[in-house]
């Protein structure tokens, strides 16, 4: 399961970041998307992309092309 | 003492900087407002304060993050004030854990104390100080509380013992590596070496790489991830011990986003807001204020003329003052009321946080043409002035997207081009002037889309990149700052009218009043300016349908400042500065009397899209980095402008004299459409391969 597959309001835990681009991966780690971090899909842009996530008490928007490289585990 | 202000984007750094130094640096509510470092003296002290661009980490991701990190390493500030957004403590403290590893005195300023209470958050600052081993002060940069204590802290010699962030295994290895480093910030460098950061390659050794490899085997993943994870685990623990949070209801921002980011009404609202901005500044409201100021300047001109004549000033000097200076400068000053409205609108879009939503709203569309949603911020700021717009492109991480946005931002009609639009559409299109002005903005948008498509397909050939951006909460803008922001921008515009435009107007008046034999009062056709213009006016023949030296020299002066085009035409017409009416400039018998609606529109198009003013060209040079790229970019712009203006005139003039009727236009459009479709399809086929195409054998 990756983050791009989740719907509004769903919560998940980060499992891994599968990026070829080292810089983007590093940036996402810096922004707090480390293994085990809880995220919630908060808002989705009107055209479906990018998606706004809530994590670590703030909101971060990420484009779909990156979201589908973030593997997660859904929290029920 | 040198004090650096370091913090996340949008954490209130610039607000604090402005309060401490009394300066008015730019404030907005979108991540990345401070694009270059700024410095000032803290009021009541001798300390120099440097406001650095916002960063999330000391391993830079975008250009502006590079600036901040380089400053800390190269300029060695004595004190770092780390401004921390208390409302998003977890993410903000990540940077703090990195700053704690530097050998520089560190003070944490816990900002937005005023909002904490509303959000039901209580932070024990004394406990936080202990947990981090760093002095902490609670402040509110906006409400200006707690700041005196913060300043006093700068002078205190004693620093407290910092705690270790990472786990013992890594901290021990860091100590070993640190022993061999003699440089300042050895702990920080040692950690970066373990992470294998290429910026510190000159310190890298085989021994360190071996240590890193062993650790990575131990943790079963790379050290970048291990260290980032450990920093966040440390912060989670600190937060648990120091922060109490009551559950809160849905926030105000979330409620607003249900409207502004709603699937169905987000776009109508966006279009409405943009329409309102231009209706107020360019449309009815704006132009009625211009008329008011115009008549004021008129009476001033008459007053000056009578006064000068009554005290016996010579004819030449009176002409210099009235026809040269007052006419040229007055022509530009008449547009100040419109600019105030435009700057106010842009300032409001920035400070409320709506600008960040626009980027989010349009990202998908912009991505299709090879740009980023963030490109819209430079475009909107650029409708005020291209220079800050171009500088704002630094928030775009991808280099290709950034360079394309830099190149395209000057295509947006900036405030200095407004006088050109107002003059021509006001005179030639009368009642329809509002629609004509608006049409130019749409024209600009279409040109930007087409240029972006062409550039991303054939020049940059880049693949679509990431959109990663913080979404700030909506804020009620501070009246004080918005007022000051608008005031400063308008003053800068007026100063330009008083300096560069003044000098140009004098030069134009001189070149116009004298012949090459230095005779005064020659017929305008024999003036120096006419001779210069005549030698190159053929360039504009396809745009104007005639060799018009006056229009030629005016357009070239657009390089100095776009509003100078209007000033120059007004000086050349040798008339009063009542340019809003346009009747004197374009009246029968004057040099510009032969302009028609078609050539007027074509001339506007040329001035809008050709090379921007020197100020914007300078900004482009800084962002593009090389002279070669700059020359390419400016030639591209001017070439586009010439071609478009030519098309407009050639088509427009044929409509005017009736040789081109609706039927003809429809046929031409149909042919064009067919050609474009064929080209687009062939590009698509090339990109996607032709799995479903039955026509050719090549890909079977």
Give a brief outline of the structure.
The complex is a heterodimer of chains A (76) and B (700). In chain A, 17% of the residues lie in helices and 39% in strands. Chain A is globular, with a radius of gyration of 11 Å.
How would you describe the overall organization of this protein?
The complex is a heterodimer of chains A (76) and B (700). In chain A, 17% of the residues lie in helices and 39% in strands. Chain A has helices at 22-30, 64-67; strands at 11-17, 38-44, 51-55, 58-62, 70-75. Chain A has a five-stranded antiparallel β-sheet with strand order 4-3-2-1-5. In chain A, a hairpin with a 6-residue loop joins β2 (38-44) and β3. The longest helix of chain A is centred in the middle third of the chain and has 9 residues, at 22-30. Chain A is globular. Chain B has 700 residues and is mainly α. Among the domains of chain B are: 2-155, P-loop containing nucleotide triphosphate hydrolases (Rossmann fold); 168-244, Helix Hairpins (Orthogonal Bundle); 662-700, no CATH class. Helix content of chain B is 61%, strand content 6%. Chain B contains 32 helices and nine strands. In chain B, strands 2-3-1-4-5-7 form a six-stranded mixed β-sheet, with helices on both faces. In chain B, strands 6-8 form a two-stranded antiparallel sheet. Chains A and B meet through α1 and β4 of A and α3, α10, α16 and β9 of B. β4 (58-62) of chain A pairs antiparallel with β9 of chain B, so a sheet runs across the interface.
């Amino acid at each position: 399961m990756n983050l791009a597959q989740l719907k509004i309001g769903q919560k998940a835990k980060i499992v891994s970041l599968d990026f070829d681009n080292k810089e983007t991966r590093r940036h996402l780690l810096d922004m707090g998307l480390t293994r085990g971090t809880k995220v919630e899909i908060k808002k989705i842009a009107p055209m479906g992309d990018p998606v706004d996530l809530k994590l670590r008490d703030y909101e971060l928007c990420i484009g779909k092309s990156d979201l589908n490289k973030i593997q997660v585990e859904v929290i029920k | 003492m040198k004090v650096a202000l370091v913090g996340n984007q949008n954490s209130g750094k610039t607000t604090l900087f402005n309060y401490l130094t009394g300066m008015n640096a730019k404030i907005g509510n979108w991540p990345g407002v401070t694009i270059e470092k700024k410095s000032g003296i803290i009021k009541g002290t001798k300390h120099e304060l440097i406001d650095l661009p916002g960063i999330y980490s000391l391993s830079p991701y975008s250009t502006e993050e590079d600036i901040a990190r380089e400053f800390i390493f190269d300029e060695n500030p004595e004190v770092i004030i780390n401004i921390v957004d208390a409302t998003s403590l977890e993410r903000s403290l990540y940077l703090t854990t990195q700053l704690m590893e530097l050998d520089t005195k560190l003070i944490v300023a816990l900002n937005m104390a005023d909002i904490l209470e509303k959000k039901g958050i209580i932070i024990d600052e004394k406990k936080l100080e202990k947990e981090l081993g760093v002095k902490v002060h609670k402040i509110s940069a906006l409400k200006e509380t707690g700041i005196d204590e913060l300043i006093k802290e700068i002078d205190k010699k004693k620093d407290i013992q910092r705690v270790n962030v990472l786990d013992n295994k890594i901290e021990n290895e860091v100590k070993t590596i640190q022993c061999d480093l003699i440089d300042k910030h050895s702990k920080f460098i040692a950690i970066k070496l373990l992470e294998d950061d290429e910026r510190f390659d000159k310190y890298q050794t085989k021994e360190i790489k071996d240590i890193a490899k062993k650790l990575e085997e131990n943790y079963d993943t790379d050290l970048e991830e291990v260290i980032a994870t450990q920093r966040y685990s440390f912060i989670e623990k600190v937060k648990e011990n120091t922060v109490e949070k009551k559950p809160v209801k849905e926030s105000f921002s979330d409620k607003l986003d249900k409207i502004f980011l709603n699937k169905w009404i987000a776009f109508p609202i966006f279009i409405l807001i943009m329409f309102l901005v231009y209706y107020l500044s360019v449309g009815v409201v704006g132009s009625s204020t211009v008329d008011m100021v115009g008549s004021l300047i008129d009476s001033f001109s008459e007053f000056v003329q009578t006064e000068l004549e009554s005290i016996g000033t010579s004819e030449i000097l009176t002409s210099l003052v009235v026809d040269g200076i007052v006419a040229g400068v007055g022509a530009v000053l008449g547009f100040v009321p419109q600019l105030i409205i435009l700057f106010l609108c842009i300032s409001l879009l920035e400070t409320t946080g709506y600008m960040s939503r626009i980027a989010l709203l349009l990202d998908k569309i912009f991505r299709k043409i090879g740009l980023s949603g963030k490109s819209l911020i430079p475009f909107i700021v650029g409708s005020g002035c291209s220079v800050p717009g171009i500088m704002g492109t630094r928030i775009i991480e991808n280099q290709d997207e950034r360079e394309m946005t830099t190149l395209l931002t000057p295509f947006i009609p900036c405030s200095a081009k407004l006088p050109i639009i107002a003059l021509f559409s006001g005179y030639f299109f009368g009642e329809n002037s509002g629609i004509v002005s608006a049409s130019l903005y749409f024209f600009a948008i279409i040109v930007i889309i087409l240029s972006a498509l062409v550039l991303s397909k054939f020049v940059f050939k880049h693949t679509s990149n990431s959109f990663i951006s913080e979404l700030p909460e909506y804020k009620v803008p501070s009246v004080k700052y918005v007022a000051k922001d608008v005031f400063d921008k308008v003053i800068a515009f007026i100063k330009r009218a008083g300096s560069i435009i003044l000098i140009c107007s004098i030069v134009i008046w001189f070149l116009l009043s004298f012949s090459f034999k230095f005779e005064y009062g020659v017929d305008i056709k024999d003036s120096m300016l006419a001779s210069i213009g005549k030698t190159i006016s053929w360039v504009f023949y396809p745009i104007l349908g005639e060799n018009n030296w006056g229009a030629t020299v005016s357009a070239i002066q657009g390089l100095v400042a776009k509003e100078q085009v209007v000033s120059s035409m007004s000086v050349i017409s040798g008339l009063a500065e009542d340019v809003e009416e346009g009747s004197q400039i374009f009246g029968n018998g004057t040099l510009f009397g032969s302009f028609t609606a078609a050539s007027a529109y074509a001339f506007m198009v040329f001035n809008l899209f050709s090379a921007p003013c020197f100020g914007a060209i300078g900004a482009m040079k800084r962002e593009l980095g090389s002279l070669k790229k700059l020359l390419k970019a400016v030639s591209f712009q001017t070439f586009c402008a010439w071609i478009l203006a030519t098309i407009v005139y050639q088509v427009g003039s044929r409509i005017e004299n009736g040789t081109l009727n609706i039927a003809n236009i429809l046929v031409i459009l149909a042919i064009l459409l067919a050609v474009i479709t064929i080209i687009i399809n062939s590009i698509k086929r090339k990109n996607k391969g032709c799995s479903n195409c039955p026509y050719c054998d090549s890909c079977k």
